[in-house]
Amino acid sequence: MKKLAFFAFLTVIAFAGCDLAADLTIDDIQGTWNFGSRSIKGDDADNVTLFVTKIDDTTLAVDFWWTVPDADAEAGYLKYEHTSNGTFSGNLFSADSYDSYGTGYGGTTTHGAIEVTFSLDGDQLSAVFSGDGPLNGIELGGGEL
Asked: Which residue of 33, 44, 116, 119 is 20 to 30 Å from 7, comparing CA positions?
């Protein structure tokens, strides 16, 4: 029993200084965040960028885009872009809908609700997308201004 109590005490001490779901402000995350080259839903992508613009103290405009890698026949051509305006509170962006553009969609497509959970580790941004449409399940990490 003493060992269990000691382990519980150590666990509390270890996490006492950690804020696992820190609140952020719009000012913390606004800007042009570059995530470099990576795989998005199994496809290679270059110039992965998340552009966050403050509209007011609780409203953001979020643009997320990437281009086709150099090895592709359409190198550098804008392949996908997603835009939305929504509310921001704590570390969560929420919007009722978002628009997608690009060669992969064959024009403009409007999707349902989207949420983006933001976090900062030092000066690197992470974003996790959940909701309707093609952004659901995308996780980005290591974004730099």
From this structure: 119
Report DSSP state, residue 145: -
User: Is residue 67 a contact partner of residue 78, using CB atoms and an 8 Å limit?
Assistant: yes
Q: Is 75 within 8 Å of 68 (Cβ atoms)?
A: yes
C-alpha 31/C-alpha 50 separation (Å) is: 8
pLDDT tens for each residue of 68-81: 776 555 555 667 78
CA 44 to chain centre: 17
- For 20-143, CATH gives 2.40.128
Tokens of 121: 């580790």
Cβ within 8 Å of residue 117, ≥6 positions away:
91, 92, 93, 127, 128, 130
Domain ranges of the chain: 20-143
